[in-house]
Amino acid sequence: MSLPKILVADDHPLFRAAVLHALRDVVDVQATLEAASVSALTAAVDEHPDVELVLLDLAMPGARGFSSLVWLRGERPDLPVLVISSNDHPRVIRRAQQFGAAGFIPKSAPVDAIRTAVQAVMEGGTSFPPITAERSERDAQLAARLAQLTPQQFRVLLAVADGLLNKQIAYEFGLAENTVKVHVTAILKKLECHSRTQAAVLVKALEPEGDFDPAA
Prior knowledge:
Arc Repressor Mutant, subunit A, 2 domains, 10 helices, 5 strands, NreC/VraR/RcsB-like_REC, EvgA-like, phosphoprotein, DNA binding, DNA-binding
């Protein structure tokens, strides 16, 4: 049986080091990878398809709330993701669960709690602190809408939400401008949006305290 490869995505070097130290006491690993930004995360996932667990900080450079989690779930639905966040508000934990996380670790958690959570998820289970927030039907609808997008379409959606024009998106991703137009048209159709502005509102709802009107 091959040893697992684990990716720790967090922009704080000391926290990454602490997590990696905790992991070594829990499970034998083939390799531990690190990423300090969303661009480094996407590159690592592309370069290492054999990664078996991601520990994901929600507030890395390039992230928009839960956008990295949603992207990972679309890119690798088989890959369990443990969210790490300093924001452990009950609704944030519930939203992480609804957007597909396998677990949630508050950054204030002791090392033993990190070890327990990692072990539970590596064994195929889940690990969340007690959640008092109710499940949100709006988040369920948002997750269902976004799940229709391909990983590339989701990347284009984030660029649209950043206000980039089609030609800028084409340059950013190395695509033909007409290809970007096709992606944008498909995105708006799948999300049932009539404009780029409406699509950007959905992305805004991925922020930890974000919300959206599914009828908008």
